[in-house]
Amino acid sequence: MGMVERVREAFLLAPRADLPVWFERPICWPKLRRAAALALLAFSAASVASDLPKERQDALVHLLRHDCGSCHGMTLRGGLGPPLTPAALDGKAQAALEATILYGRAGTPMPPWQNMLSEAEVRWLVEALKSGSLQ
Amino acid sequence: MTPPRTAKPTKRRPRRIAVLATALAATLLLGFGEPRGTGDLGLIVERATGRVQVVDTTARTSLGTVEGLGDLSHASIVYSRDQRYGYVFGRDGGLTKVDLLKGSIVRRVIQAGNSIGGAISTDGTLIAVSNYEPGGVRVFDAATLEPVAEIPATYGSDGKRSKVVGLTDAPGQRFVFSLYDAGEIWVADLSDPENPEVQRFRDVGLQPYDALVTDDGRYYVAGLFGEDGLALLDLWHPERGVKRILDGYGRGERPLPVYKMPHLEGWAMAGDRAFLPAVGRHEVLVVSREDWTEVGRVAVHGQPVFVMARPDGRHVWVNFAHPDNDTLQVIDTETLKIVRTLKPGKAVLHMEFTPRGENVWVSVRDEDRVEIYDTRTFSRLETLNADKPSGIFFTARAHRIGL
């Protein structure tokens, strides 16, 4: 098991809330470089959100309501999984939420979505959820 | 009742107009109170719009819609024993009593913040609802929906409340349910409705996610999400406690990520075998009803969600979790071979057999339609339009234990 996997494993198994922000993503330099590039892009283009085509945004919202919704509720007020309303996500770090979606959450039914969603799409979803624009 | 919505133009069926006319006629008849039975009726949940369609399984048509039922994601329905009323359990804690003959809401209460399903008592006088928030079961008078009893699902030393799943009725005015967070099974006897007698079974396994009771009402089986296996309670002999079955069915293989929880409600019993979905695996497990050991597995197209036996037990129909949810497979219960693979369309959520199983109705959520198949020839008989259809529930359920 390599360094990245070990960190990821530890991260997945550890209770999330007590972790400092820097620990919230496994360290992966190419990804960091990409993240930095994306961040720059975000600065220049007002927001990452606008980089996603409208149809893709609609598809993500559909997925969120109907597939994520089977656990989190179609109105995102929770079910077997926790609510995803802005109030419920308030104070939770963007990066931690992105990691939960990408890698899932060990010991719970939350599955990893990294094979179906790109990091940019996950970022857009978390931003949209936190902003309340999907309510 | 609102007449059926005019569907968008479609080339699918030349019989559309005839069907629409029949539906309108039927609506008018219903509206004027022409006597008719309800044994061939049912409800289809249109979950995004808080609406149900009243359907006729003989005419294979929609009779109209009933609106105003709130958040119907994951909604389920049980029926009064006279098969006239449907009790619709919504995600938002709404419990709605719908009159199928009048196509209207009789009464609607918001009984909790977040709920997952319900059941009707043996004698049809009580409705029980299982709630996530606040965790527990609430019981209502089936006639009036007035509250009768509350059973908080408290566990541990600090009085925490667990989400309740897998609520079913069992003979003898009992309701059986599982505590997701606590790993417990409770049996509540409501012979004296205001003083429910609750028997608790602890440490049944990690994260029971759904459950069922066999069609004879004898065995309650809870699926476990947190481990490979199921918890079995013999309701004829509760003193023998909860037994683990199919322990470690994954045999240490790492399960696949689960994008939709399987359901056990459609527990498929066929002859001396039972069929059930394996969690996180592309398999249907086949179990002997004699001693509850595994007798086989069927490799299927994806992770099974509903595994449902045709009422005669000859075939088992299976639908699948995202992203394989455009497909249905049919298993021959004798040879355990897949005899047919169908592609009804995007997001096949649920299926329901007509009372004796000659047809099956299939909801195809992302294509806004319900398909009706002949279960012998597998040919498509009819297509009905429905807005994001999810659960389909026919009134024949009224007379079946555990549905």
Structure description:
The complex is a heterodimer of chains A (135) and B (403). Chain A has helices at residues 3-13, 29-44, 54-72, 86-89, 94-103, 119-131. With 135 residues, chain A is mainly α. Chain A has one domain: Cytochrome c-like domain (Cytochrome Bc1 Complex, Chain D, domain 2), CATH 1.10.760.10. Chain A starts with a helix and ends with a helix. The model of chain A is unreliable at 1-29 and 40-49 (pLDDT under 50). Chain B has 403 residues and is mainly β. Among the domains of chain B are: 111-260, Methylamine Dehydrogenase, Chain H (7 Propeller); 262-343, Thrombin, subunit H, CATH 2.40.10. Chain B is 4% helix and 47% strand. Chain B is globular. Classes of the chains: A mainly alpha (135), B mainly beta (403).
Number of helices of chain B: 1
**What is the name of the CATH architecture of the domain at 111-260 in chain B?**
7 Propeller
Portion of residues within helices of chain A: 40-55%
Low-confidence stretches of chain A: 1-29, 40-49
- CATH homologous superfamily classification of the domain at 111-260 in chain B: YVTN repeat-like/Quinoprotein amine dehydrogenase
Major sheet of chain A: size, sense and barrel closure? Answer: none
The SSE string of chain A, one letter per element, is HHHHHH
**CATH secondary-structure class of chain A:** Mainly Alpha
Content-based structural category of chain A:
mainly alpha
Tell me the strand percentage band of chain A.
Answer: under 5%
Query: Please, what is the oligomeric state?
Result: heterodimer
User: What is the averaged pLDDT score of chain A?
Assistant: 74
Distance between the termini of chain B: 26 Å
Number of strands of chain B: 34
What's the CATH superfamily of chain A, by name? Cytochrome c-like domain
The number of distinct β-strands of chain A equals 0
Q: pLDDT average of chain B, as an integer?
A: 91
Indicate the low-confidence ranges of chain B by residue numbers.
none
- The CATH class assignment of the domain at 111-260 in chain B is Mainly Beta
CATH architecture title of chain A: Orthogonal Bundle
Largest sheet of chain B, order of strands side by side? 3-2-1-34
